[in-house]
């Protein structure tokens, strides 16, 4: 019953509408706890062995903690979390799965763009891609902004022979990128800042997601943490280009394969025009990478598996914490 209701509420949520998101959030807050039975555990146990292996790999990727640990002094019980935490996007996304557990259990979490590894295991949206990032336990947070996918009906061959990018440029690497390529004949690139330096040649009009899909090439550039457009870009029929990611979220950016799932650019983007010209001349190679991108995205579209993994990541967290 619960999953059917959640599925119906997801229809508009996937379109990134605020009204449907907050309606769904209210449902999560006020829905009776008895609806949150152990059906996800049953579904997990009934999975095919090959699927279960893939599911387990993702669970252990998000939650790398393998030993017992003590929680941060700032840890809260689930009951305290519900009563005291501000009811915003991160709150709703985490509560959706916390409600499967005893409200007396304690949890440590850090909301926002997290770019450092916590001193003790904590639930986060993002973490640096490092060998020793075990204390950063990833959950699928701020979904309304980050997890948008598209159904792109336009063929790659029919798109504009340029790369497109729009975004806010307050960080140095983004500023340099825009200033270097805003006037290139191969690019439609510009900042859409709302404060600071806006009377500059590289300040351009906003382009909607669907307008950007008219272009053959899409750039993903990290901001405070990950590139928020990467998910929808990789689900499109455009070719995604980016520098090697430094941060990751539930999308597991650290597992993306350079020049297989996306086109790798130098950190300073100095090879951007060279790569555009190459793939304009090698259409089939571009389409092969696009196909791999689309295939990678598919694993995040199965809502039942996403529910199971989210639940099991938290279950592992509570099992190991003291």
Structure described in brief:
The protein has helices spanning 2-13, 18-30, 39-45, 49-62, 78-84, 89-98, 143-146, 172-181, 209-212, 230-234, 272-281, 283-298, 303-320, and strands spanning 76-77, 106-107, 122-124, 127-128, 136-138, 160-167, 187-191, 215-219, 239-243, 247-248, 263-265. It is α/β, with parallel strands linked by helices. The radius of gyration is 21 Å and the shape is globular.
Structural summary, described in words:
- The protein is α/β, with parallel strands linked by helices.
- It folds into two domains: 2-144 and 301-320, no CATH class; 156-298, Rossmann fold, CATH 3.40.50.2000.
- Helix content is 40%, strand content 12%.
- It has helices spanning 2-13, 18-30, 39-45, 49-62, 78-84, 89-98, 143-146, 172-181, 209-212, 230-234, 272-281, 283-298, 303-320, and strands spanning 76-77, 106-107, 122-124, 127-128, 136-138, 160-167, 187-191, 215-219, 239-243, 247-248, 263-265.
- A five-stranded parallel beta sheet has the order 7-6-8-9-11. A two-stranded antiparallel ribbon has the order 1-2. Strands 3-5 form a two-stranded parallel sheet.
- Strand 8, helix 10 and strand 9 (239-243) form a beta-alpha-beta unit.
- Helix 2 runs parallel beside helix 6, helix 3 crosses helix 13 and helix 4 (49-62) crosses helix 13.
- Residues 5-16 have low confidence and may be disordered.
